[in-house]
Amino acid sequence: MSVTVDMGNDGAGKSVPIDVEELLATRLLVQGNSGSGKSHLLRRLLEGSAGLVQQIVIDPEGDFVTLAGPFGHVVIEASEHSEREIARFASRIREHRASVVLSLEGLDAEAQMRCAAGFLSALFDAPREHWYPALVVVDEAQLFAPAAAGDVSDEIRRASLSAMTNLMCRGRKRGLAGIIATQRLAKLAKNVAAEASNFLMGRTFLDIDMARAADLLGMERRQAEQIRDLQRGAFLALGPAISRRPVSVRIGPVQTSGRNPNVSLLPLPGADAGMRDRLLAPVAHDPPPPPPPPAAPRIGSEDILRGIARPILNPQRAEEPAPIDMEAFEDAAADALAELVADPETAYRAAPVLFQDFQMRCRMRGHPRPPVDLADFARRLAIARAGIDPRLSEHWQDALDLAAELPEDMLAPFLLLARAAREAAPCPADSTLALVYGTRSPGRVKRLLAFIETRGLIASRIDLSGKRSIALPRLGWTTAPADADQEAA
């Protein structure tokens, strides 16, 4: 089941969605001159996916801090904290899966690059058990991944560029999906831009930027002129998460807005004869300076960490959560796991990605807060992949106790062998074990069985007809003989 965000309509009035799961794997590049609607586009995407995936926004102008109210993002004002604190926040963000906005407003260009480099590096270096899926949005990306040296020192520029390159080139395996927006492709480092597979190109006027945008969209150079004619809020879209062919999309409305109002014309005051007198009237005494405004209380680092650890989705509606009907939840969770296992493609997807899918399926069944963490979900998924109803796992406690001696990724194939042995069913074929193990390599399955056998948990036997049977000596269970090379049913 795909999860999409409606970005707006094409020229025919048809909705243009973005597939969030595909976006996590393929990344996104947004380009457009100032005033083309890039921030509006990013805001539409962030608002539409706020309840679906963790979001981390690097905001050089403080435009996205308004997401905090209706969507519960934690705002971190970088100017109020040290680099060490920012890096510490980043590691906590990955651990607690909090959606945050890192506002770099008030910092000069060099400080912004240094702060972003440390923050992105800490996200990238998080422990493997915290590699949850997250959208990492970087606005004005040309500031952090410049194509050429600028006024900042080479050391800071290299650190920032390295962090952005890691995000776009190697972040996918760590669950980090880069979404970068830039005013000019010519100012953005090519090795950063080249890693995106999805593109949303807005209005631009310079020939070099139009030519690069046309190349990325697979358009001929003579077609690049249409990029100059795009209206504000209109973009040309292409990519596996959006469309296989270039499509024009007008971005839909948003709920929040930036802190800076749009520049528009205001009527001037009427000219009158007294204007000169009012402006040049003599001043007898300089007025006393106004009293300084009371200093706003500084938010300490511990307060930020507490906010990250326990984010409130809607502070205005915070209330005691209703008690969970565990029996109804277990039924819903079993149905959701059965749907996941029935899809053959899920066998080759990472557990954190499937965990997010599982949570959505539970929400659709009326359980918005599934009382399951990632480790518990991985165990339930392994049991379901073995063909065992997770609600009856207590009947398989002996096998589960034996499996405690194995790595977590081997639980599903071991339980499949245990189920076949307990029921005296034919021994599962290598192709069936490979599907449950999440691999397409027959060699990995043979190494898996050899490893489990060296631990004394199974004993395999091949009879004179070449059929294999596998026993669990400690439990006294044995499968029926079967051909190891038969195809999975």
TrEMBL record:
Pfam families: DUF87. SUPFAM superfamilies: P-loop containing nucleoside triphosphate hydrolases. It comes from the Bacteria. Residues 14-79 form the Helicase HerA central domain. This is Helicase HerA central domain-containing protein. It comes from Sphingobium boeckii.
